[in-house]
Amino acid sequence: MAAAQLGGAIRGRTAIVAAGNTAQGTIPGISADELAVEGLRITLAEAGIDKSEIDGLITCKSFGGFGIDTEIGRLAGLNPAYSATLDYGTCNFSLHLACAAIDAGLASVVAIAYGTNQRSAGNKFGHPLGRQDEASVYGFLNVAGPAAMAFRRHQHLYGTTEADLAEVSVSQRRYAVDNPLAIFREPTSVEDYLAAPYLVAPLRRPDLCMISDGAACLIVARADRAAELTDKPVHVMGIAQQTGLRDRQNADQWLRPWIQQVAERIYPAAGIEREAVDALYIQDPTSIWVLQMLEYYGFVEPGGVGEAFRSGAVGHGGRLPLNTNGGQLSEAYMWGFLHLCEAVRQLRGEAGARQIEGLRTAQYCSTFGFMKAASTILSTEAS
Amino acid sequence: MSGYETPETQDDSRFWDAAAEGMLVFQRCDRCAFVRWPAAGVCPECLDRGYTWEEVAPRGTVWSYAVYHRAYAGYLRERVPYDVALVELECGVRLLTTLTGFDDDVDPMGAAVVARFEAVGEHERVPVFGPA
Ligand SMILES: [Zn+2]
């Protein structure tokens, strides 16, 4: 099936009506599920929406298997018409499921609730020992390993330098200076970056995100309900996904070239050209993901990421703002939820000191590890 | 349930046992010859279940590598810094491994490599790769 024949064109039918979150950091003494409910409470309160409006609940598992709809529904006192839990709840996938449920008539106002206590729980993202496998034998632990290999491969193919990669985290940190939610707010420079020791060479600490405790929540509604619930709906124009489920059998596994297939679908689905994107959000558990997606979505030429930042084509102060919250590299991991919260706030003009003026269209690109990719285009206008 | 054969549990122990004897072995599909790794009860190319464990040539090229300066688990503390590499074998499998025998001033990216069988950490005789 040709890419453009797949669906995902949902403009005019679904909108985000609220986005909220708790503080990020170390929040001991509260479970991941309770945090998710706290995120839901904050979001509803800020938006002035009563929980009785919710007839759909989508949750996603956090570290340790927490976060299932049955637990969170019970804690939140909800009997929604529709509910589901994603094992890989990274934000875009939860949003897409909410849109699909609304489009199918299963629900009309869907809460996406995510909470995590990975920081308090001490999740090191290490590989479990036990069965002898390659990863444990050779010590291939943490996402930093495949990310580092992907970057070294990229260097080999395109001549990308470590100073080029530095631009990603340095640019994002400049936004974080104005973001009270961010864990890392100190400005940094390419020189600072290059002076930092390697964690998994060629990656350094600024290339990796901070794991936090916290919660985020979004409320997605059918267009008619959205109009009743807010005067500032953020319309979901188009959604697209692609998997790489064959995983290690895929060519260039960690480079994930199949992400390009999402790029082929998302702009036709949203009914816009790529050039119409005013702000870009890229999920960035590692800085390599930003580099990869800028290229795969066609915003920069392969190997041109460093120059794109230096020339002002993308990034802080540039023509295309990128991760105006500071991204996961500054804010917190939170499975990419805070990118979507930020995109909603920017489109609504509610981003405070870091507000970019005149934004109408934003794109959010994300992945789940090495197996799934997704993108969403949001707009202040329904068509 | 006559006629239904309980599926054999697939694990990679045959690979590690062979490595201890200085060989690289993988499952090769009896129908389409696709080489499976990790071990699997079904061929991801043609979905056939039949296979034969076969020794393959221990040669390939370095697809990429990374150098761990941080130990993400306690058992790795005495090993840092260490490298992890992905080697693309002639049989098509991409094998996670480590590199050995390269001079410090040589960048092993893309290098032709051949398997050696050596201890890694507490493991006895696992495949590592060095200059061909
Ligand atoms: Zn086969």
Automatic annotation (TrEMBL), chain A:
Classification via CDD domains: SCP-x_thiolase (cd00829)
Alphabetized SUPFAM superfamilies for the sequence: Thiolase-like
Superkingdom of the source species: Bacteria
Thiolase C-terminal domain mapped to chain residues: 253-377
Transmembrane segments: none
Pfam families (alphabetical): Thiolase_C_1 (PF22691)
Protein name in UniProt: Thiolase family protein
Automatic annotation (TrEMBL), chain B:
One Pfam family this sequence matches: zf-ChsH2
Domain annotation ChsH2 C-terminal OB-fold: ranges: 53-117
Gene3D superfamilies assigned: 6.10.30.10
InterPro entries, A to Z: ChsH2_C, ChsH2_Znr, NA-bd_OB-fold, Thioester_dehydratase-like
Domain ChsH2 rubredoxin-like zinc ribbon, first and last residues per copy: 16-50
Recorded superkingdom: Bacteria
Name of the protein this chain belongs to: OB-fold domain-containing protein
Organism: Rhodococcus pseudokoreensis
